[in-house]
């Protein structure tokens, strides 16, 4: 279980980070019961769902903040995040690409079970 998570969008052309969502369920000031104005945790929920929520937040703000729509999602095969973002732009759906390393791992695991 992790209290922190980070999701990023990276340009496939330049390799530069286009957007980033850092999430945390932890706040040191709240834990120490310090009474003052501060930015607290920005995520409530399970650690396993952080990737999905982060991806959704980034894709949701992409048009307004960056004036662009992401057309491809590159992630591991078991990611639930793609299901959250695939239809976020309406008719302009997002295409899923998979990391070859994850594909090889899944195929290898299934072949060994066979």
Automatic annotation (TrEMBL):
This is Mutator-like transposase domain-containing protein. InterPro entries: Mutator_transp_dom. Residues 2-113 form the Mutator-like transposase domain. Pfam families: Mutator.
């Amino acid at each position: 279980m992790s209290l922190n998570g980070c999701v990023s969008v990276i340009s496939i052309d330049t390799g530069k980070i286009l957007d980033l969502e850092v999430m945390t369920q932890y706040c040191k000031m709240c834990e120490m019961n310090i009474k003052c104005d501060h930015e607290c945790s920005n995520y409530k929920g399970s650690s396993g769902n952080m990737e999905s929520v982060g991806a959704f937040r980034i894709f949701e703000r992409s048009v307004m903040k960056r004036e662009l729509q992401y057309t491809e999602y590159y992630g591991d095969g078991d990611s639930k995040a793609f299901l959250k973002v695939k239809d976020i732009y309406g008719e302009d759906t997002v295409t899923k690409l998979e990391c070859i390393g994850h594909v090889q791992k899944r195929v290898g695991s299934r072949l060994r079970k066979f």
